[in-house]
Specification:
By secondary structure, the protein is α+β, with helices and mostly antiparallel strands. Helices cover 36% and strands 24% of the residues. It has 3 domains: 1-100, no CATH class; 105-182, no CATH class; 185-302, no CATH class.
């Protein structure tokens, strides 16, 4: 960062959201060759900075740095700390690659997530995947690191070749067990989810039959995949005594509505399409189709 641009760091920031947006803009401007994204989970906010041609990317915990800022650390010092963390990561990336290339070391951390099939056809040619509805099940490795930094490594064809794994179903079996263990899933009332973010709802549901729920994992990251977890949907459907409509509002969660006579699939599809158009970022898009879950049989179909 040029000395004459340090005045940018005299800004006064009042919220965690503004703090994240500030550093995303700073790094996008100072390093235009990089891809800079804010990653949000239930318990953390991170800044992922990817260099051209880089397979792995550092993710710096902004929530930890925001606490330092509130305690008096300057924005300039925090910028230098993030830059230093990225430089440190570059020096250790080769060692990390050696780790992930050893299947015996990494097999218990392989996880899966969902992505839209049609929009990612070119990418899917390069990664192992399994088709599901209009989606694809793909694989990644969450790699924890020290000092609040973490990595999410996609599993591609080159990596599974090094592992000597030719059976994608076997890979899914491994990932299916790991994902549920590492990222437990839940179905919660949407009102309760909003309360977690200190949102104040002016009123409750006018009709209990209109109640909506959110299915995601404990980090709210790649959480839409929980709809495939063992017994998660079945237990919930039996608990409310209804079949379910699943609305894929993001790669990070699914919205659930009880299947009632008043809930026409066509109307719910319009709701989903509006949410995807108005609020879901392109990188988080999952599908404009809705799915129906049948309790008792566990059957899921596009409607």
């Amino acid at each position: 960062m040029d000395e004459d641009k340090k005045y940018l760091f005299s800004a006064k920031i009042q919220t965690m959201e503004a703090f994240a947006e500030f550093f995303q803009a700073v790094f996008a401007t100072s390093h235009p060759e990089m891809t800079v994204e804010v990653m949000r989970g239930q318990n953390m906010t991170g800044l992922a900075i990817t260099k051209p041609g880089q397979t792995l990317s550092p993710m710096v915990r902004l929530d930890i740095l925001y606490d330092k800022y509130v305690d008096g650390c300057s924005l300039w010092k925090i910028f230098c700390e993030i830059t230093s963390a990225c430089d440190e990561y570059d020096s250790s990336a080769s060692r990390l690659l050696e780790f992930v290339e050893d299947f015996e070391l990494v097999h218990s951390r392989i996880c899966y997530r969902l992505m839209n099939y049609e929009r990612n056809e070119e990418l899917l040619k390069t990664i192992p995947h399994i088709g599901w509805m209009d989606l694809a099940i793909v694989f990644y490795i969450p790699v924890a690191a020290r000092d609040g930094k973490g990595l999410y490594l996609p599993v591609d064809n080159a990596l599974v070749e090094k592992w000597g794994i030719a059976d994608t179903d076997a890979l899914f079996t491994e990932a299916f067990a790991n994902t549920q263990k590492l990222f437990p899933g839940s179905v919660r009332d949407m009102e309760d989810v909003f309360k977690d973010y200190d949102s104040v709802l002016e009123a409750g549901y006018e009709n209990e039959d209109e109640r909506m729920y959110i299915a995601t994992n404990n980090e709210k990251f790649y959480g839409a995949a929980v709809v495939l977890y063992d017994n998660l949907l079945e237990s919930f459907a039996q608990g409310i005594g209804r079949d379910l409509y699943l609305l894929p509002t993001s790669i990070n969660e699914m919205t659930i509505v009880a299947d009632l006579k008043g809930n026409a699939a066509a109307e719910l599809r319009k709701v989903l399409q509006n949410v995807n158009h108005e609020t879901t970022e392109d990188k988080d898009f999952l599908s404009n189709n809705i799915y129906r879950y049948e309790r008792g049989t566990g059957n899921i179909s596009i409607v």
